[in-house]
Design goal:
This is ATP-dependent DNA helicase. By secondary structure, this protein is mostly helical. The strands form two sheets. The protein has a two-stranded antiparallel sheet. It has seven helices and four strands, in the order E-E-E-H-H-E-H-H-H-H-H. The chain has helices at 32-35, 41-48, 58-77, 81-93, 96-108, 126-136, 138-147; strands at residues 5-9, 15-19, 25-28, 53-56. It folds into two domains: 3-56, no CATH class; 79-147, no CATH class. Helices cover 51% and strands 12% of the residues. A hairpin with a 5-residue loop joins strand 1 (5-9) and strand 2.
């Protein structure tokens, strides 16, 4: 009987043939098609090599954990950081008047004006970019939102 080989694609998309006996572990996206117990890549790989380690994608796991932590944080504190980032972006996005006023506050706080980054919930790590950007520009944003009078309760 011939040894079973698996064909995978490396980073350069060139075909690489690896004997299943030499395959130690693989990481897959966290879907049932990939890591489910029945009729999945995991179950088929285990048929070829029962010692193979199948790990879920660490990026997906980290994303799911931080999403759950953010949800719990917002339930406890009543402050949803995702909603905050979305609200600030859309408040300033289409209004050149608001942007020009914000620029004045930045100048007053000795800070250079930069556009607010848009948070996209399906794009991993964009929340960190948005929050870090706002924290770097915190003094100008804080002065703007404390000094201007807004009818919306979301900016109080």
């Amino acid at each position: 009987m011939f040894p079973v080989t698996v064909c995978i694609y490396d980073i350069n998309f060139a075909r690489v043939f690896i004997n299943w006996d030499h395959c130690v572990a693989t990481g897959l996206d966290n879907t049932n098609v990939n890591i489910g117990d029945h009729n999945s890549i995991k179950s088929r790989a285990k048929e070829k090599n029962e010692d193979i380690i199948i790990a879920g994608c660490p990026c997906h796991i980290l994303h799911n954990v931080t999403g759950k932590a953010g949800t719990d944080f917002s339930e406890i504190t009543g402050f949803d950081i995702e909603d905050h980032c979305v609200d600030v972006f859309y408040w300033l996005d289409k209004s050149s008047k608001r942007k020009s006023i914000l620029k004045e506050y930045y100048e007053f706080c000795d800070s250079k004006y930069k556009e607010i980054i848009k948070f996209i919930s399906t794009s991993w790590l964009s929340l960190e970019l948005c929050v870090n950007h706002e924290l770097k520009k915190y003094e100008g944003l804080k002065s703007y939102f404390l000094s201007e009078h807004f009818p919306d309760a979301q900016f109080k």
